[in-house]
Write a structure and sequence with these properties.
seven-stranded parallel sheet; alpha/beta; four-stranded mixed sheet; about 375 residues
């Protein structure tokens, strides 16, 4: 009886197919970054598998346009799997079934202020969840074939030890979120060094877009500016107006994630614009875009922002939005990313604010209760 033996040509074709195979798993695919990354990878010919938490209400709004059929949620090159970073069994099952070439860990409890109220949960998801995912790769025997991206954060720097912050700047997190992400950062480094895994941390500074969650300060501002301009709201209440941040566009930043995994060696990179603006600046730019000039009066909790023309108070400070430990100044130095990856930001601060305000103006016109 003749044995079925693969020819050298068949083996070569199989090897070539494996080399060309582009399959990504994204945790947090329904979030701002996950949705932009899914778009980006699909355009590059990837099959994208997203990990989706079960919810009693639909939470796929940011990725609905990526279904093969939006009305029936028929899947095409984007496939969704129910899973959770707190459940190691499901992570092993998904990774073993999909056998991805790249994994992007974007899933997290990512709201800094809320992490003070949900400290244990934040540690479980953002910190230990990263370990579960790395362990799942190891359990499935994919240590040498998978490239792993960890969504790290500028909140690691917290009480900054130098300005600007770069890859070698000491960390000093100032929130349960930052502390959980610090564990995740170092466990990625450990797996890279212990098991020779291609695992990297992207230390991304603040990045926004019209898809930003409504309870994040930038989106809260643009939504409120749109509502105030349309006569749907009188005033916006904010926390620390003087907080300085390095804001970029999420679309630019997801490209950097992908570039890190195409790099010849696994390295950690800071991704930032290098330009700093205060929350106060963001408020001014957003109102300027709808033709309103804000003038500031008072200090600290008594500070208000008035409409220069009418005198109406449009911005107030509410202490309930202050963090127990504040991060005052974040400014990234992404020169390493420019030198090694060729990455640089494309969207300016002014363009970012304009895009977000325009999107929220359109949203509120169509749905005032949004």
């Amino acid at each position: 009886m003749a044995q079925c033996v693969e020819s050298s040509t068949d083996l070569a074709m199989k090897t070539e197919e494996q080399t060309e195979r582009k399959v990504a798993v994204i945790t947090g695919i329904t979030g701002q970054d996950g949705s932009y990354l899914a778009e980006f990878l699909l355009e590059k010919g990837y099959t994208v598998h997203g990990v989706l938490r079960r919810s009693s209400s639909f939470n796929t709004g940011r990725i609905e346009h990526l279904y093969k059929n939006r009305r029936t949620h028929l899947e095409g090159d984007m496939k969704l799997h129910y899973g959770d970073l707190t459940d190691s069994t499901c992570l092993v099952k998904i990774i073993n079934e999909v056998k991805p070439t790249e994994i992007y860990n974007l899933g997290a409890q990512s709201h800094v202020k809320i992490s003070f109220d949900l400290a244990e949960y934040t540690a479980n998801v953002d910190g230990v969840g990263t370990l579960r995912l790395l362990d799942a790769i190891k359990t499935c025997g994919l240590t040498n074939s998978v490239r792993f991206y960890q969504a790290s954060t500028s909140e690691l720097y917290g009480k900054v030890q130098e300005i600007p912050q770069k890859e070698t700047t000491p960390f000093y997190p100032r929130s349960p979120y930052g502390a959980a992400k610090l564990y995740a950062y170092w466990i990625v480094v450990n797996f890279r060094e212990a098991y020779n895994m291609f695992a990297v941390n992207g230390i991304l500074f603040n990045h926004e877009s019209p898809r930003r969650g409504a309870n994040f300060v930038t989106r809260k501002i643009t939504r409120s500016v749109a509502k105030i301009h349309l006569g749907l709201q009188d005033c916006i209440y904010l926390g620390n107006l003087g907080a300085m941040r390095d804001w970029g566009h999420a679309k630019d930043y997801v490209e950097a994630m992908w570039m890190m995994l195409q790099h010849k060696v696994p390295e950690d990179f800071v991704i930032a614009t290098g330009k700093v603006h205060s929350v106060r600046d963001f408020v001014e730019k957003a109102f300027q875009h709808v033709g309103t000039t804000i003038v500031w009066e008072g200090e600290n909790e008594q500070e208000v922002g008035r409409n220069k023309e009418t005198g109406a108070i449009l911005v107030r400070v509410d202490p309930k939005f202050f963090r127990p430990t504040e991060v005052e100044y974040l400014q990234g130095d992404s020169s390493k990313a420019l030198e090694h990856l060729g990455w640089k930001t494309k969207v300016t601060f002014e363009e970012l604010v304009k895009e977000m305000v325009d999107a929220d103006m359109e949203l509120m016109k169509n749905n005032p209760n949004a």
